[in-house]
Specification:
Elements (H helix, E strand, L loop, with lengths): L2 H15 L15 E4 L2 E9 L3 E2 L3 E2 L2 E2 L5 E6 L9 E6 L2 E13 L9 E6 L4 E11 L5 E5 L7 E5 L3 E5 L4 E4 L10 E5 L1
Parallel strand pairs: 2-6, 3-7, 6-8, 7-9, 8-10, 9-11, 10-12, 10-13, 11-14, 12-15
Antiparallel strand pairs: 1-2, 4-5
């Protein structure tokens, strides 16, 4: 195949991926993820990486579970400093309760249980419990870097235990003075 034809074929293939549903790009996450052996509606996650809204386990999305337990220990790696990250996405899991543990890790700080940022960030969950032990960390933080309205909605109960941090933050956007950050519980 000639170089020009190859380049055109590569560009066509890349542009075609823009029209694929996002589920195709979902990350299959199996290391240290397991269904609870006593309850198939519960997913247990042991991780030191951000859990993203499009991650899957054995072909199931997080919304396929009634309870998702994230046991997160930060390592300080760039981009891996949140337990659950919602970046430029709307993630609605109204029938799923999240229980998030952010474990103490020597010298690590600013490790939020839930962090929303960028464009059109939103999360709706059935319930949320978060236990945050790292320094200067929050249960959830709607970032000041959001460019549009952003929201967290907890339909059921919210339990937040923070040892050192602000707890719950909905920051004003530094990028768009008209954007609002909302937290709704109940």
């Amino acid at each position: 195949m000639k170089k020009k034809s190859l380049a055109i074929n590569i560009l066509l293939a890349l542009s075609a991926t823009a029209f694929m549903p996002m589920g195709i790009w979902a990350a299959e996450s199996t290391a240290n993820w397991q269904e609870d052996p006593n309850d198939a509606t519960k997913l247990n996650i042991e991780t030191n990486k951000v859990v993203h809204q499009d991650d899957t386990f054995d072909g199931k999305s997080l919304s396929d579970y009634q309870t998702v337990v994230i046991n997160y220990t930060p390592t300080g790696s760039a981009g891996e400093n949140r337990a659950l990250g919602v970046y430029s996405a709307r993630y609605d899991v109204p029938d799923t309760k999240f229980i998030i543990y952010v474990n103490e890790s020597a010298g690590k700080n600013n490790n939020d249980a839930l962090h929303l940022t960028n464009h059109f960030a939103g999360l709706t969950v059935g319930g949320l419990e978060a236990y945050v032990k790292t320094t200067s960390s929050d249960v959830f933080n709607i970032s000041r870097d959001c460019t549009t309205d952003a929201s967290v909605t907890v339909l059921g109960d919210l339990k937040a235990v923070v040892e050192d941090g602000n707890g719950i933050r909905a920051n004003a956007s530094v990028n768009n003075k008209d954007a609002t950050a909302s937290i709704i519980v109940g």
